Amino acid sequence: MELAASQGYLEDELYKLALRLNSFWFPQNYIETAIYFKAFENKDWKNVDPKLIMSAEYSSVSGWIQNVNKKVAKLNLPQIQIGAGCGL
């Protein structure tokens, strides 16, 4: 992020980049976040502001569990395990 900022990326571009990177590192979380926005906010992933997604409300561990995971779990969707996780 620091390199991108030093190369002149604008704030909106930095949020998009951060979202892309986090989506690779935590794919299960961001898949569930996309499901949350579609199921509960009726928004397609491409239409959700990356700055909102990257906020503590959706991208911190506690915010994600409270605002995404608990709600998506109520949908009783089949579980898809991607990767081994971060080990925390």
Strand content: under 5%
Low-confidence regions: none
The number of helices is: 6
Overall average residue pLDDT: 91
Let me know the largest β-sheet. Answer: none
Indicate how many domains the architecture comprises. 1
What is the SS-derived class? mainly alpha
> Shape from CA axes?
elongated
Distance between the termini: 23 Å
Describe the structure.
There is one protein chain. This protein is mainly α. It has one domain (2-73). The chain is built from six helices and no strands. It has helices at residues 2-6, 11-25, 27-41, 50-53, 56-59, 61-73. The longest helix has 15 residues, at 11-25. The mean pLDDT is 91.
Present the secondary structure layout.
Layout: H1 2-6, H2 11-25, H3 27-41, H4 50-53, H5 56-59, H6 61-73
Helix pairs in contact: 2-3, 3-6
In brief:
This protein has 88 residues and is mainly α.
Give the key terms.
about 90 residues, mainly alpha, 6 helices, about 65% helix
